[in-house]
Design goal:
Length: about 210
């Protein structure tokens, strides 16, 4: 049985999701970015992310989390397992927002998106934004902690809104038979070679 669009976006290997997000952005990013609704969401996303970033910077979290991951044999909260918390949709709207999506290393105990300045992703998975360990809570004042929790909650709500906007577009690509500019290739044809995945196959039966 062929995988569904949802299977590929959320259930592929890290390599599959990573390559899929980049391929989607390269092939259809301009079309997505032409949507006024998406542009409005991206403006809001950047503003909310700036609020979260300011709170994190004030608390020193990026350095604390980076050092914890690198000094912990299991990678701490930013362990290698957290890499797979990212799905192709989240990686795609990082790209749509103009944020780089690149692996910082190929191996190690820590998350592969963890860079010298902390997480290299602008928009992060739910767990990464919603969880604060006891050490971070101890280092952060109650007032700043409250600001961060409110800012993170608003950002996660907006990320969810963008996801809900993109999913019907992504799921509709094969059925719509969208064509590349100046070509007659369908989306199904375009994605046959994507990281070994027969992406956007309309058939879900053997």
């Amino acid at each position: 049985m062929h995988p569904t669009t949802i299977d590929l976006l959320y259930g592929s290997s890290l390599s599959g999701k990573f390559q899929l997000a980049h391929r989607l952005f390269a092939e259809f990013g301009a079309q997505f970015l032409s949507l006024a609704a998406l542009q409005d969401h991206l403006i809001t996303l950047r503003r909310l992310q700036d609020d979260v970033h300011r709170c994190m910077a004030e608390s020193g979290m990026p350095a604390v989390c980076r050092n914890c991951a690198r000094s912990n044999a299991t990678g701490g909260c930013c362990s290698h397992a957290m890499t797979d918390e990212n799905d192709a949709v989240l990686l795609l709207f990082n790209l749509l927002a103009g944020a780089p999506v690149e692996l910082q290393r190929n191996e190690g105990a820590e998350c592969l998106f963890l860079g010298e300045e902390g997480c290299s992703l602008q928009f992060k998975p739910y767990f990464c934004l919603n969880y604060l360990c006891r050490r971070l809570r101890h280092l952060t004042s109650p007032a700043l902690l409250g600001r961060l929790e409110r800012a993170s909650g608003l950002l996660l709500q907006e990320q969810y809104a963008v996801e809900q906007l993109l999913l019907p577009l992504l799921d509709g690509l094969p059925q719509n038979g969208c064509q590349r500019a100046g070509k007659n290739a369908t989306v199904k044809d375009d994605f046959q070679e994507s990281s070994g995945l027969s992406f956007f196959q309309t058939a879900t039966t053997p």
